[in-house]
Amino acid sequence: MREAADLLIEKLNGLAPQLGLVLGSGLGGLVDVVEEPVRLPYSELPGFPRSGVTGHAGEIVAGYLSGLPVIMLAGRAHYYEHGNPAAMRPALETLWGAGVKQLILTNAAGSLRKDMPPGSVMMIEDHINFSGANPMIGEGSDRRFVGMTEAYDAGMRSAISKAARESGVDLHRGVYMWFSGPTFETPAEIRMARLLGGDAVGMSTVPEVIIARYLGLRVAACSVITNLGAGMSAGELSHQETKDMAPVGGEKLSRILTRLCADGLPEG
């Protein structure tokens, strides 16, 4: 991590962003509005993951978003690609080593609520780790016992809510339930998820939240809704549907994040 962080700091050439963003499906276009961008492919950073999912660029983009210094991870590695829930640990440790204090994670997700249709944006208030995997397995110190009571920072959630109002975006709130993937859930699993208190389902983000909290970062996360869960609408689910619908909610979430940066980071 130290080698990668030192290389990143050198490439940033004095830019010192405290906000990091992980861009999921539909958010890749956000890098195009970054001013004075510095781009660095993951392949040039030791230990960084390689994402094999279409729509995930695999590069760091740093610069200014609405005047705020930010650093973005355009693309992520998923548990279902490698069987390693800690696949994103080197990347997040590198951001932490480069001075990032706050992290916003984004993803594409399936809705469990009819009132939250495809194209919506949901701010994650809590999660259910249904996969059973955990990136802290194998960590040798007592730091592995990460407290998750306040995994999603209240101050950051309040700032995102304010930015959504100012942007005119209807922001939903709910619980994200992590399934391992890569297969989509069955209708029975969706019924179970609703009974357990889930509002959206997806295949990422939760291990990154755990790693970020382990590192002491303040965390927030939002989902772009791309589909209703299995059995809630006619037809079979597909990754193409995710790719087609992600830009719709992605545009809304981009407006929120741009406004958030214009307002400045929350104190705390």
Automatic annotation (TrEMBL):
It holds the Pfam family PNP_UDP_1. One of its GO terms (cellular component) is cytoplasm. Residues 19-260 form the Nucleoside phosphorylase domain. GO terms for molecular function: purine-nucleoside phosphorylase activity. Pathway: Purine metabolism; purine nucleoside salvage. A purine D-ribonucleoside binds at E185, N227. It is an enzyme of class 2 (transferase). Belongs to the PNP/MTAP phosphorylase family. The purine nucleoside phosphorylases catalyze the phosphorolytic breakdown of the N-glycosidic bond in the beta-(deoxy)ribonucleoside molecules, with the formation of the corresponding free purine bases and pentose-1-phosphate. This is Purine nucleoside phosphorylase. It comes from Nitratireductor indicus C115.
